UniProtKB/TrEMBL annotation:
NCBIfam families, sorted: era, PRK00089.1, small_GTP
Residues annotated as binding GTP: 66-73, 113-117, 174-177
Region annotation G2: where it falls in the sequence: 92-96
GO biological process: ribosomal small subunit assembly
Lineage of the organism: Bacteria, Pseudomonadati, Pseudomonadota, Betaproteobacteria, Burkholderiales
Stated name of the protein: GTPase Era
Similarity annotation: Belongs to the TRAFAC class TrmE-Era-EngA-EngB-Septin-like GTPase superfamily. Era GTPase family.
Length: 347
């Protein structure tokens, strides 16, 4: 697809040694006032599609990348305006490439969320996840490289190394709400500019609506002029069946905490629609007998809660009644087995 050339980035020479007004201005802008939108327009007017002639429309791909747990899925859901990607405190929650859409004014954003890049374990599941990340960053118009504000470690560096040189990259310093003294971030942002010629710095919180608004305004200029690819009412390319399995997985991870290994997964055995009712049967696959007990809980209480919370959220999402039946099965070693990983839907 056509690509607009990125705005000129700040030079990458050592910034401590050379006065650099362009970079200073960029940092001042970035550290201005997070949580306060630059535009004074009301939110609804800003984040709605505005029907325009196809010739006047803008549209493009924005990839969201970063190591596990930095807030990529939270960001995608906020940008799309509805839950399309599951989140949890547990790293490695996102396992698929998820696309979400949002049309704002004359511009349609096609967001691509990726699993956090895995650097620790080389099993079949992680190899499949890393391939998904690499597939997502090529051929996009803009990359949002998400890190935790004030932090940058080897895992972040490995993701940054993968990013193609010809695509503009925005450094999105997320979880800014956890930084107590805003001024402390300036030296860190300067050090980040030495690592990559970022097109922009955006300290923000994915949980703050005003920051999300501001981010749309920042990303807009990188998307080329071309007709929208999707109906502005459409939000995602993921099916309801997929959403159902993800929702169960989210509740599973949230309610079992750290004791359950991340290799547990969910398969949908049945998905039927009868008028305003969805009948779903799903199996939670775990690696060991001991894990089965953790999922089922005392007198089946944990499994029941996972089912209830997933059902309630799906009913809210689809605005219909849901019957959800859950089973638990043991399949040891599935995450090390390429064929099984593929058969469970990971490419
Ligand atoms: N305080 C704070 N927490 C955040 C923010 N954004 C995300 N989080 C939390 O960070 C945790 C991880 O968020 P996710 O969106 O699941 O992270 P992810 O990068 O998609 O994680 P993976 O699926 O492991 O790649 C969750 O507990 C979120 O609620 C933020 O701006 N501020």
């Amino acid at each position: 697809m056509s690509r607009k050339s990125p705005p000129k980035s700040a030079p990458s020479q050592p910034i401590e040694a050379v006065a650099n007004p362009e970079l200073d201005a960029m940092l001042a802008r970035a550290l201005g006032k997070p949580g306060e939108a630059e535009s004074a327009e009301p939110e609804a007017a800003v984040l709605e599609p505005v029907p325009v002639e196809p010739a006047a429309q803008h549209c493009g791909f924005v990839a969201i990348v970063g190591k596990p747990n930095v807030g990529k899925s939270t960001l995608l859901n906020a940008l799309v305006g509805q839950k399309v990607s599951i989140t949890s405190r547990k790293a490695q929650t996102t396992r698929h490439r998820i696309t979400g859409y949002r049309t704002v004014g004359p511009t349609q954003f096609v967001f691509v969320d990726t699993p956090g890049f895995q650097t620790r374990h080389g099993n079949a599941l992680n190899r499949a996840l890393n391939k998904t990340v690499l597939g997502a960053v090529n051929d996009v118009d803009l990359i949002l490289f998400v890190v935790e504000a004030g932090h940058f470690n080897l895992a972040d560096a490995k993701v940054l190394d993968l990013l193609p040189a010809n695509v503009p990259v925005v450094l999105l310093a997320n979880k800014f709400d956890l930084v107590h003294r805003r001024g402390d971030l300036a030296p860190w942002l300067r050090s980040m500019q030495e690592r990559h010629a970022f097109a922009e710095f955006v300290p923000m919180s994915a949980k703050n609506t005003k920051d999300i608004q501001r981010l749309f305004a920042i990303c807009e200029k990188y998307l080329p002029q071309q007709p929208w690819m999707h109906d502005p009412e459409e939000l995602t390319d993921r099916s309801e069946r997929f959403m159902a399995s993800e929702m169960v997985r989210e509740k599973l991870f949230r309610l079992t905490g750290d004791e359950l290994p991340y290799t547990s997964t969910v398969i949908i055995d049945k998905f039927e629609q009868e008028g305003q009712l969805r009948r779903i049967a799903a199996t939670i696959v775990v690696e060991r007998d001991g894990h089965k007990g953790m999922v089922i809980g005392d007198k089946g209480e944990k499994l029941k809660r996972i089912g209830t919370e997933a059902r309630q959220e799906l009913e809210k999402l689809w605005d219909c009644k849901v019957f959800l039946e859950l089973w638990v099965k043991v399949r040891s070693g599935w995450a090390d087995d390429d064929a099984r990983v593929r058969s469970f839907g990971y490419e």
